Amino acid sequence: MKLTLYPAIDLKDGSCVRLLRGDMEQATVFKNTPDIQAAKWQAAGFPWIHVVDLNGAFAGHTVNESAVRAILAAVSVPVQLGGGLRDMAGIEAWLKAGISRVILGSAAAKNPSLVKEAAKAFPGQVAVGIDAKAGMVATEGWAETSNITATALARRFEDAGITAIIYTDISRDGMKTGLNLDETISLAASVTVPVIASGGVASVADITALRQAAASQHNLSGSILGRALYDGSLTPEEALAAC
User: Which residues face 17 on adjacent strands?
Assistant: First the structure.
């Protein structure tokens, strides 16, 4: 089974950064501007770009609008966007602006009716982001931990018409310690919605292991790639060949 790989562009104060375990105080700023970085990932052959407005995730509304618009202008591949999308007006505005898929995270945990409304209004363009600490859903830019398990939240949207679930193990994000494959497989087995793995990819071995798991767990559909791509420990060529 072929996986879809999504190189990540995380935006903080207009810059392209990588965090450690979601800590805004531990941000590594990379040299390329977000639009140049997006064009670089497209040129390398990636079929999607994954963008997160980190400031927006904390603020509850879009903050890095100019950077996102610059990314959209720089690439022709589809772009998915998360961070700070908490109402229908914001969702609709970004889809009209050219975003191919919105990712609803905090809204999924706190306002599930919004997710269902958006998925019905914009079929094929709404994904749910489930970010977990020790199996429990975290919200508000990972600053708050809820009393909902990742699996329970995923099941709420089984029949909502969402296009994907992006599952992130926060403890591994930016750490290059490998995907939490067991938890990802367990979550995927609980739903029929496609699941995209995120958090901790360090090498070709992680992508290969995910692809092998997808051979039997067919709704494992892809992975977000972050720090390993940026620091060169995983090259685009290696990553794409492995999937």
Answer: 10, 29
Q: What is the pLDDT of residue 35?
A: 96
Look at residue 145 and tell me whether its pLDDT is greater than 80.
no
In 3D space, the residue among 2, 54, 10, 33 whose CA is nearest the CA of residue 194 turns out to be 2
Q: 127, 130, 169: which is closest to 153 by C-alpha?
A: 130
Prediction pTM value? 0.92
Find, among 129, 122, 130, 128, the residue nearest to 99 by Cα.
122
What torsion, rounded to 10 degrees, do the Cα atoms 98, 104, 107, 111 define? 90
Q: CA–CA separation, 159 vs 62, rounded Å?
A: 28
pLDDT per position as a tens digit, 226-236: 989 998 999 99
Work out whether strand 126-133 and strand 164-169 pair parallel, antiparallel, or are unpaired.
parallel
User: Average pLDDT in the 100-121 region?
Assistant: 95
> How far is the C-alpha of 6 from the C-alpha of 229, rounded, in Å?
11
Query: CB neighbours (10 Å) of residue 27?
Result: 17
Q: Which of 131, 169, 173, 206 is catalytic?
A: 131
214, 188 in Cβ contact below 8 A? no
**pLDDT value at 21 more than 70:** no
Domain ranges within the chain, ordered by starting residue: 4-242
Short-list 101, 136, 141, 134, CA closest to 221: 101
CATH class of 4-242: alpha beta
- Tell me if residue 131 is catalytic: yes
- pLDDT of 135: 76
Tell me the C-alpha to C-alpha distance, in Å, between residue 157 and each of 161, 192, 213.
7, 10, 23
